[in-house]
Write a structure and sequence with these properties.
By secondary structure, the chain is an alpha+beta fold. The protein has two domains: about 30 residues, no CATH class; about 130 residues, Roll (DNA Polymerase III, Chain A, domain 2). The protein has a nine-stranded antiparallel β-sheet with strand order 11-10-9-4-7-6-5-8-12, with helices on one face. A hairpin with a 6-residue loop joins strand 9 and strand 10. The protein is elongated, with a radius of gyration of 20 Å.
Length: about 180
């Protein structure tokens, strides 16, 4: 699909799709370019089983601010398997807002830490994600705020646009070393 997106620059240009019988392939045609892909046979796994049904910590944060912090962390995280830590801290009082600290470390370039104000419900958590996957999810979210829902540092996290129930992104955590 990435290759198809790369060649289909014009959103007005039609994309034609053909599924030849008994060949196990799909063919996409855009202008004078054809992209052929092999179809996978078998039963698709039930994805509902991996979506957490509840959460212990829910964090509401600005989509733009979190995306900017992830892009900064990604520069440092490239050398270390793209691991970025999210330290979600609930406020200790009314005068101090809750926050998410996004950090990544590189032996060559040093350490990056960015703090983003947030609203935290259910307590703080320290979790690590592949920052590239988190950034990619945030780039397609069009709402001003995003919710991060987690149950534990070693369980899948959920990224949801606040106010839009048509999108949900499950992201597996990375090991905190």
């Amino acid at each position: 699909m990435n290759e198809l997106a790369r060649v289909a620059h014009d959103p007005e240009e039609p994309i034609y799709m053909v599924v030849p019988k008994q060949r196990g392939q799909v063919l996409f045609r855009v202008k004078d370019v054809e992209v052929v892909s092999q179809l996978i046979e078998g039963t698709f796994p039930d994805y509902h089983q991996i979506i957490p049904r509840s959460y212990k910590s829910r964090t509401l944060v600005s989509t733009a601010a979190l995306l900017k912090a992830c892009k900064q962390a990604e520069i440092f995280a490239r050398e270390g398997s793209n691991v970025a830590r999210l330290d979600i801290k609930q406020s200790n009082g009314e005068m101090q807002p809750s926050e998410v600290e996004i950090s990544a470390t590189s032996e060559e370039t040093g350490k990056n830490e960015t703090i983003v104000e947030a609203t935290v419900d259910g307590g703080g958590v320290l979790i690590a994600f592949n920052v590239k996957f988190l950034r990619e999810a945030l780039e397609v979210i069009k709402t001003p705020n995003v919710a991060l829902e987690m149950t534990a540092p070693n369980a899948p996290g959920v990224v949801k646009p606040v106010g839009d129930d048509n999108f949900l992104h499950v992201i597996m955590p990375m090991h905190l070393g």
